[in-house]
């Protein structure tokens, strides 16, 4: 097993590395696009990788789009990609509930319409999506009617998150048999146009605090996202590369699953961050040190074109 | 048990009769939590009004120290009166909302506005302290994609807010990008019980969401932070050795007492149970000793026999 070395990838090393992998998993935000702007050169990288016979997958913690919505966005930006190559947490959470939790019942959902759609696609009904304004007094809130078929509270990004939703989640979670599942713990969500807002991690933390328990999270760095890809395509993890911009989600996922890891500097994490983890000597942090790094994935182009 | 106390081991002893009488004689200052100690919702705990008035009649100093930030103090006085605590004056009431205003005005001496996530209790106290604030219900056309920010916001204060929205979370985290903008929380209680035993989410949930969004830790005004005791001390001459803190929640009231160097008493009419107190006492982690009360009573009404003489 390669020791994470945080090596600058350039020159002949690029081709060497690419020849050693058959599949490349890309994070999206900060790696292939920023908001609705493709990272310059990114579409060519993806398209050339495929032309060179590599499998390409997109693995994102963002729960606000269905696979179809992502496929449409990818196509619009010039990436040759199909729906089944995209793994977002809306889709993966539905898969998790269906195949791992084997949920029999409904979900109380704090999340987006995309999450609702992905749940319905696997036959799971939800209640709660959309605005939920507060009315009445305290005693009413504590006694909100609960759907007896709800067996899990699922939390993803929700711009309609409110005290009332937090309250409903708490009332369901008073039952210790009710599951608590979160899409991811990212603290910020990048928006179109380059802005960012508080991420799902904030909403999930509020619910965990109220219920005094930890959620099961589906997204990176949890290995489930990789398992999801691997269960549908035959992957040799020793010949897989994970490309991401966040050390604590993308790179850690790669390390957890025994994949090669490449950090790109067009997003959140820096080389200094990586080196700090490396120098810490702390076993927990070593998983966040990438094998390689590049300034941008566009640096892979010469090796792909040649 | 002086020897054991010196090593930080708390008694966690249930006391009655003459032990209570001795304790009442030894202490001059009695600090009471409210919810679960002197009342449950709109019902006074049986005997509690008589305990409070007897203490006052016997020349004891009585204060009420509560994390509940949903009412201004003048409103609390009305509640005390309504429930039969007719001797209680506004000056004796220390709520986390009142103390947050004191902190902003007298300690931080904030120059500028405060962005408030909270209700009438908090806003009213800020108004009374002369502290300008923003946070009235959001402009109807504001969205997370383009929310207008007020200028001159120098502090963010988070309290209990049943009108909490994601937009407020987004705005607050924008303000807190400025490291010079203060980050205050009235309290960090994760949930509160209602009269019938059901629970509701507390300020702690909203505060933790904002801490995750900003990567910053809030300065906590309420218990178990010792600040509310500092407020009391700044207004009255108080000797910690003469104090008894009476509460029902180990992780707030007992820890508060320990943090301020006060003797503590757990009453079993509220949230925490004797079993939990004993588990903390018997645990290997020395930090857990701070949750352990010195004394335990089933109800503060157990004080009443001590006044008969």
TrEMBL record, chain A:
Q: Locate the active site.
A: 27 (proton donor), 29 (proton donor)
Reactions catalysed, as given in the entry: sn-glycerol 1-phosphate + H2O = glycerol + phosphate; O-phospho-L-tyrosyl-[protein] + H2O = L-tyrosyl-[protein] + phosphate; sn-glycerol 3-phosphate + H2O = glycerol + phosphate
Q: Does the keyword tRNA-binding apply?
A: no
Q: What EC number(s) are associated with this protein in UniProt?
A: 3.1.3.21, 3.1.3.48
> Does the keyword Lipid biosynthesis belong to this entry?
no
Q: Which positions does UniProt annotate for substrate binding?
A: 220
Task: Return the cofactor note field.
Answer: Divalent metal ions. Mg(2+) is the most effective.
One GO BP annotation is: glycerophospholipid metabolic process
What GO CC terms are in its UniProt record? Answer: cytoplasm
Which molecular function GO terms apply here? metal ion binding; protein tyrosine phosphatase activity; sn-glycerol 3-phosphatase activity
Q: Which UniProt keywords apply?
A: Carbohydrate metabolism, Hydrolase, Magnesium, Metal-binding
Instruction: Note the NCBIfam families from the entry.
Output: HAD-SF-IIA, PGP_euk
Quaternary state and interactors? Homodimer.
Q: Which family does it belong to?
A: Belongs to the HAD-like hydrolase superfamily. CbbY/CbbZ/Gph/YieH family.
Cited PANTHER family:
4-NITROPHENYLPHOSPHATASE-RELATED, GLYCEROL-3-PHOSPHATE PHOSPHATASE
Summarize the protein's role.
Glycerol-3-phosphate phosphatase hydrolyzing glycerol-3-phosphate into glycerol. Thereby, regulates the cellular levels of glycerol-3-phosphate a metabolic intermediate of glucose, lipid and energy metabolism. Was also shown to have a 2-phosphoglycolate phosphatase activity and a tyrosine-protein phosphatase activity. However, their physiological relevance is unclear. In vitro, also has a phosphatase activity toward ADP, ATP, GDP and GTP.
**Descriptive protein name:** Glycerol-3-phosphate phosphatase
The species this protein was found in: Hucho hucho (huchen)
From TrEMBL, chain B:
- Coiled-coil ranges from the UniProt annotation: none
Query: Which PANTHER family has this protein been placed in?
Result: 4-NITROPHENYLPHOSPHATASE-RELATED, CHRONOPHIN
Q: What cofactors are annotated for this protein?
A: Mg(2+)
Entry binding sites for substrate: 192, 223
Keyword entries, A-Z: Hydrolase, Magnesium, Metal-binding
A Gene Ontology cellular component where this protein is annotated is: cytosol
Q: Which residues form the signal peptide?
A: none
Write down what this protein is called: Pyridoxal (pyridoxine, vitamin B6) phosphatase
Keyword Metal-binding found: yes
Q: Which residues form the active site?
A: 33, 35
Pfam families membership: Hydrolase_6 (PF13344), Hydrolase_like (PF13242)
Molecular functions per Gene Ontology: metal ion binding; phosphatase activity
Family that this chain belongs to: Belongs to the HAD-like hydrolase superfamily.
Cofactor: how bound: Divalent metal ions. Mg(2+) is the most effective.
To which species is this protein native?
Answer: Hucho hucho (huchen)
Residue positions binding Mg(2+): 33, 35, 248
């Amino acid at each position: 097993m390669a020791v994470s070395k945080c090596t600058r990838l350039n020159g002949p090393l690029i081709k060497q590395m690419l020849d050693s992998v058959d599949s490349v998993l890309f994070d999206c935000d900060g790696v292939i696009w920023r908001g609705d702007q493709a990272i310059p050169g990114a579409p060519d990288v993806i398209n050339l990788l495929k032309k060179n016979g590599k499998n390409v997958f997109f693995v994102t913690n963002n729960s606000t789009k269905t696979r179809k919505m992502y496929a449409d966005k990818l196509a619009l930006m010039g990436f040759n990609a199909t729906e089944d190559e995209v793994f977002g947490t809306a889709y993966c959470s539905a898969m998790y509930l269906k195949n791992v939790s084997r949920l029999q019942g409904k979900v109380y959902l704090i999340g987006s319409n995309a999450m609702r759609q992905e749940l319905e696609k696997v036959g799971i009904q939800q209640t709660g999506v959309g605005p939920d304004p507060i009315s009445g007094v305290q005693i009413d809130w504590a006694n909100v009617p609960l759907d007896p078929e709800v067996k899990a509270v699922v939390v993803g990004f929700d711009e309609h998150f409110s005290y009332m939703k937090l309250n409903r989640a708490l009332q369901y979670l008073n039952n210790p048999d009710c599951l608590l599942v979160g899409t991811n713990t990212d603290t910020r969500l990048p928006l179109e146009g380059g802005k960012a807002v508080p991420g799902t991690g904030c909403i999930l933390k509020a619910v965990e605090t109220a219920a005094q328990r930890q959620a099961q999270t589906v997204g990176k760095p949890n290995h489930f996202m990789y398992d999801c890809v691997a269960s549908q395509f035959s992957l040799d993890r020793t010949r897989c590369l994970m490309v991401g911009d966040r050390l604590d989600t993308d790179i850690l996922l790669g390390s957890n699953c025994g994949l090669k890891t490449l950090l790109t500097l067009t997003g959140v994490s820096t080389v200094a961050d990586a080196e700090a983890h490396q120098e810490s000597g702390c076993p927990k942090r070593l998983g966040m040190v990438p094998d390689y790094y590049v300034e941008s994935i566009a640096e892979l182009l010469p090796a792909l074109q040649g | 048990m002086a020897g054991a106390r010196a090593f930080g081991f708390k008694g966690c002893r249930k006391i009655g009769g003459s032990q209570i009488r001795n304790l009442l004689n030894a202490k001059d200052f009695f600090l009471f939590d409210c919810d679960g100690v002197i009342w449950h919702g709109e019902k006074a705990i049986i005997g509690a009004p008589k305990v409070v008035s007897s203490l006052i009649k016997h020349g004891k100093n009585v204060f009420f120290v509560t994390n509940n930030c949903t009412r201004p103090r003048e409103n609390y006085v009305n509640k005390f009166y309504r429930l039969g605590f007719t001797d209680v004056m506004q000056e004796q009431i220390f709520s986390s909302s009142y103390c947050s205003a004191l902190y902003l005005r007298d300690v931080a001496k904030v120059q500028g506005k405060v962005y408030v996530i909270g209700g009438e209790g908090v806003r009213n106290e800020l108004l009374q302290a002369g502290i300008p604030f923003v946070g009235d219900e959001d402009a109807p056309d504001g969205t997370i994609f383009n929310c207008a920010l007020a200028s001159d916001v120098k502090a963010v204060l988070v309290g209990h807010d049943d009108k909490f929205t994601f937009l407020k979370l987004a705005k607050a985290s924008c303000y807190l990008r400025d490291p010079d903008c203060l980050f205050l929380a009235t309290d960090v209680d994760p949930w509160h019980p209602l009269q019938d035993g059901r629970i509701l989410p507390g300020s702690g949930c909203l505060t933790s969401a904002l801490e995750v969004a900003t990567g910053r830790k809030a300065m906590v005004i309420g218990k178990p932070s010792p600040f509310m005791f500092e407020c009391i001390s700044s207004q009255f001459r108080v000797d910690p050795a003469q104090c008894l803190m009476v509460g029902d929640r180990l992780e707030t009231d007992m820890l508060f007492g320990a943090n301020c160097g006060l003797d503590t008493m757990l009453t079993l009419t509220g949230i925490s149970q004797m079993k939990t107190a004993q588990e903390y006492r018997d645990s290997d982690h020395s930090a857990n000793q701070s949750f352990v009360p010195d004394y335990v009573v089933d109800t503060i009404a157990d004080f009443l026999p001590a006044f008969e003489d």
